[in-house]
TrEMBL record:
<dbReference type="Pfam" id="PF13622">
    <property type="entry name" value="4HBT_3"/>
</dbReference>
<dbReference type="Pfam" id="PF02551">
    <property type="entry name" value="Acyl_CoA_thio"/>
</dbReference>
<keyword id="KW-0378">Hydrolase</keyword>
<dbReference type="InterPro" id="IPR003703">
    <property type="entry name" value="Acyl_CoA_thio"/>
</dbReference>
<protein>
    <submittedName>
        <fullName>Acyl-CoA thioesterase II</fullName>
    </submittedName>
</protein>
<comment type="similarity">
    <text>Belongs to the C/M/P thioester hydrolase family.</text>
</comment>
<feature type="domain" description="Acyl-CoA thioesterase-like N-terminal HotDog">
    <location>
        <begin position="33"/>
        <end position="109"/>
    </location>
</feature>
<feature type="domain" description="Acyl-CoA thioesterase 2 C-terminal">
    <location>
        <begin position="153"/>
        <end position="282"/>
    </location>
</feature>
<dbReference type="InterPro" id="IPR042171">
    <property type="entry name" value="Acyl-CoA_hotdog"/>
</dbReference>
<dbReference type="InterPro" id="IPR029069">
    <property type="entry name" value="HotDog_dom_sf"/>
</dbReference>
<dbReference type="InterPro" id="IPR049449">
    <property type="entry name" value="TesB_ACOT8-like_N"/>
</dbReference>
<dbReference type="InterPro" id="IPR025652">
    <property type="entry name" value="TesB_C"/>
</dbReference>
Amino acid sequence: MTNPAERLVDLLDLERIELDIFRGRSPDESLQRVFGGQVAGQALVAAGRTTDGERPVHSLHAYFLRPGRPGVPIVYQVERVRDGRSFTTRRVVAIQQGRTIFNLTASFHSPEPGIEQQLPMPDVPGPEGLPTLADEVRAHLGTLPEAFARMERRQPFDIRYVERLRWTDEELRGAEPRSAVWMRAVGPLGDDPLVHTCALTYASDMMLLDAVRVPVEPLWGPRGFDMASLDHAMWFHRPFRTDEWFLYEQESPVATGGRGLARGRIYDRAGRLLVSVVQEGLFRPLRPAEGAADGG
C-alpha cells in the first residue's frame, strides 16, 4: 500500500491472539521511540473491540510509562472493568518485550439526549487558502530537505498551520504559547466510527505540545529539547470523520519544572466542538551532541 491513510488504517487493525489480548505492529522507522499516538490509537482499538460496538468512546486517560522500540510488536491486554446499563469501562496495558510501556482507561457511553451548549470556535481562515507544511518549509529553506520529504510521504495527515510558522528569534520573541492547525487524513478511512476515533487519537498526539514550544524555538528544524508525552486525556463530545477537515486549537497554560501542560480543542468545519484534549509532556534541554534535526 502506498497511501499513508491506508497504512494508518492497517496499523490500527490489530491481530487478536486471545479473547482480550491483541497484537499491534510497530513500524521499523528511524525514530528514537515509538510514536505515542500510535500506541494510544492501538490501545483504544483493543478496548473498543471488547465492547458490543453500540457505545461510542466518550473519554480516555492514559500514561506513557516507557519508550517503545520501533519495529517490535506491542501486545495489548484488555481488562473488562465494567459493563453497566449506560457505561462500559475498559483498562488496557501495552506490553513490549515483557515490559509495560503504556496504560489506558477508556469509557464508552450509550448516546442519550441532554443539554446542548459550547464555547464558540475561534474565527480563523479555512484550510483551503493556507499553505501545506511542505510549502512552508520549502518557502523558508528554498528547498525541501530529503529527510522532510520522506516524512511527508509517510504522513497520514494533511497539516496546515493557521498562522505562518516562526523561524527566527525575532519572530519568536513575545509569541504566546498557542498554536492552531487544520488537519484531515490524506485519504478515506472507511466508515467504522471506531477507526475514525482511533485515527483522531493518533493525530491528537502529533503536535499538541507545539503550544509549549512556540515561545522558545521554531516548531520545525533543529530541536533544543528532549520532548516526550507523559500522560494524555481526551473527551469525545460528538461523532466525526477524521478524513474531513478539523481545526486543532492548542494552548499551554504553564510550563515549569521540566514539564509543559497543553490543552487542545478540536472543531469541525461547522464550528461544533468535537473533542477536548489535555496532555503533559517532558521538556529537557538537549546537550549539543543530542540535537534532533527533524523537529515537529
